[in-house]
């Protein structure tokens, strides 16, 4: 282990020594001689051969040369410490390399370098992430580490497949002009997600809804503790499904209010639903919008009844299963169109 640890350490300091050796060639030659010995030892280890004993002793003697003269009794315990540190250096280096490889593979396959908590990865797409439970002890962390590898390898084939929006049996709301022999697009969003709001605005302004038969899939992101990431998203999703069932286009009008409008104080309604409104206040605001759209009292009562139907819960559960298990989505908005799955902010061209 000493020779492997020496190679790792020498490789790390090699860059600095290379600069120093420009001014002090003797230092560079000494370093290069030691590096070649370490490389030769490492190569033998890879081929399951024994390293030269002389190199191991060279490293130890170099580190202990001053101690031998002043404190000869310290040599043996320090030699053991060097062996232990060598093992630690090798283990940490191997772990770091594997973690780096896992992060890169996760970023490529899943769109985030952190599988458990995508929001912690600044390299991923701009999304509202779907996070999982963080491990609470060493055993859970170890198990989760291996589970993440499994998720990554399962997701890799998805990078080489094509996606058809019509292949997924989502419960959705329609956009005006749907079904006019246009290509189908699926748009998964959370009413409380600011990235979803920006994507929606970009799609409207760019004519995306005119070009595609868009199926909007409302989805309330749940955190690891089963609470909702945005506190009123769940009731908004239920109202959207109930309103769509009573009158086509009504759910889209609710979404327009939330994503594109502000109150009299200039505050976005999305922010009000996320930060200020209680559940009761959120329901009151949604029903005020519904009543303002020429809906009679009977239709409002019908929407309230449908809200409590188990079918609404079934719809949200079915969507969740497709999103999290079939599509393995780690963050939304996520869209499917033109044979591909697109995650993150949709930018107008």
Account of the protein in words:
- With 349 residues, this protein is α+β, with helices and mostly antiparallel strands.
- The chain has three domains: 92 residues, no CATH class; 52 residues, no CATH class; 181 residues, Glutaredoxin (3-Layer(aba) Sandwich), CATH 3.40.30.10.
- Helix content is 60%, strand content 7%.
- The strands form two sheets. It has a five-stranded mixed β-sheet with strand order 2-4-3-6-7.
- A hairpin with a 2-residue loop joins strand 6 and strand 7.
- Helix 8 packs across helix 13.
- The N terminus is likely disordered.
N- to C-terminal separation? 55 Å
Q: State the CATH topology of the largest domain.
A: Glutaredoxin
Number of domains: 3
Described by strand count, sense and barrel closure, the largest sheet is:
5 strands, mixed
What's the gyration radius in Å? 30 Å
Q: Structural class of the secondary elements? A: alpha+beta
Instruction: Give the CATH H-level superfamily of the largest domain.
Output: Glutaredoxin
Number of strands: 7
Beta-strand residue fraction? 5-15%
CATH architecture of the largest domain: 3-Layer(aba) Sandwich
- The chain-level mean pLDDT equals 78
What count of helical segments does DSSP give?
13
The low-confidence parts are 1-7
Helix content: 55-70%
Envelope shape: elongated
User: Secondary-structure element sequence?
Assistant: HHHHEHEEHHEHHHHHHEEE
> What topology, given as strand order, has the largest sheet?
2-4-3-6-7
Can you tell me the CATH class of the largest domain?
Answer: Alpha Beta
């Amino acid at each position: 282990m000493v020779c492997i640890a020496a190679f790792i350490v020498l490789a790390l300091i090699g860059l600095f020594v290379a600069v120093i050796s420009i001014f002090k060639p003797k230092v560079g030659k000494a370093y290069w001689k030691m590096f070649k010995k370490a490389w030769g030892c490492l190569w033998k280890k890879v081929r399951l051969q024994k390293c030269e004993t002389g190199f191991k002793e060279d490293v130890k003697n170099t580190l202990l040369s001053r101690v031998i003269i002043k404190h000869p009794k310290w040599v043996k315990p320090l030699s053991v410490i060097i062996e232990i540190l060598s093992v630690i250096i090798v283990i940490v280096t191997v772990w770091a390399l594997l973690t780096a490889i896992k992060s890169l593979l996760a970023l490529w396959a899943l769109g985030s370098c952190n599988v458990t908590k995508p929001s912690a990865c600044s390299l991923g797409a701009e999304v509202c992430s779907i996070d999982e439970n963080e491990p609470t002890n060493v055993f859970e962390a170890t198990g989760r580490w291996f589970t993440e590898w499994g998720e990554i390898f399962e997701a890799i084939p998805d990078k080489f497949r094509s996606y058809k929006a019509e292949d997924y049996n989502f419960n959705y709301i329609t956009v005006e002009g749907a079904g006019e022999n246009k290509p189908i697009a699926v748009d998964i969003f959370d009413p409380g997600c600011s990235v979803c709001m920006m994507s929606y605005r970009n799609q409207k302004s760019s004519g995306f809804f005119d070009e595609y038969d868009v199926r909007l899939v409302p989805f309330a992101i749940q955190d690891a503790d089963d609470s909702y990431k945005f506190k009123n998203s769940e009731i908004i999703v239920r109202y959207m499904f109930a309103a769509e069932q009573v009158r086509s286009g009504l759910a889209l009008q609710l979404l327009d209010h939330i994503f594109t409008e502000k109150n009299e104080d200039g505050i976005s309604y999305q922010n009000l639903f996320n930060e200020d409104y209680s559940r009761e206040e959120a329901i009151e605001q949604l029903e005020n919008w519904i009543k303002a759209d020429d809906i009679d009292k009977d239709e409002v009562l019908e929407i309230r009844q449908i809200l409590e139907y188990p079918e609404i819960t079934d719809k949200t559960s079915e969507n969740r299963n497709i999103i999290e298990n079939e599509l393995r989505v780690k963050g939304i908005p996520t869209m499917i169109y033109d044979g591909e799955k697109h995650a993150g902010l949709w930018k107008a061209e």
